[in-house]
Amino acid sequence: WSSDVCSSDLLLLAVLGGIFARAGVGDLLSGFLASGLPLDNRAVALVVYAAAMALLTMVMGNAFASFPVIAIGIGLPVLVARHGADPAPLAALGMLAGYCGTLLTPMAANFNIVPVALLGLRDQYSVIRAQALTALPLFACNLVFLFLFT
Fold first, then answer.
1. CB-CB neighbours of 35 under 10 Å
2. Which of 17, 116, 117, 126 is most buried per CB count within 10 Å?
3. Residues with Cβ within 8 Å of residue 93, at least 6 apart in sequence
4. H or E segment and range at residue 45
5. pLDDT higher than threshold 90 for residue 97
6. pLDDT the model gives residue 7
7. pLDDT digits 0-9 by tens, 60-93
8. In the Cβ-directed half-sphere of 121, how many Cα atoms lie within 13 Å?
9. Nearest in space to 26 (alpha carbons), one of 74, 64, 59, 65
10. Going by C-beta distance under 8 Å and a sequence separation of 6 or more, which residues neighbour residue 118?
């Protein structure tokens, strides 16, 4: 039963991301970033892609919802079309950047708030602080992998 619930939750999050993407949030984000950042530089575009994935995931609470928005807004038009990035590792590493954001936000309640309640911890952000020791170095390694493999 729990695997069915988990699968349906992930499907709903992916659909939510698709709705945001269909509503043009990705295009809006791309236009906003392109107006203020030199996305013609491949290195800047890769950093912006990973950072946007992590930050939007922190806002939305899950990478499945933010992935379509960032992929449509930055990944495909800027990195794949303009800079010739390979879409397969770009997508995989983009999701990993998003997962780093999941580890750092209270919006991901099932990962970061529920364990605090179940364990009876006094500090509601103790799980996030502990996970930051993994998330930040992993994000840095992920940036290196983006430069090497896309």
1. 8
2. 17
3. 50, 142, 145, 146, 149, 150
4. helix 42-60
5. yes
6. 60
7. 888 888 888 888 888 998 999 999 999 999 999 9
8. 16
9. 74
10. none
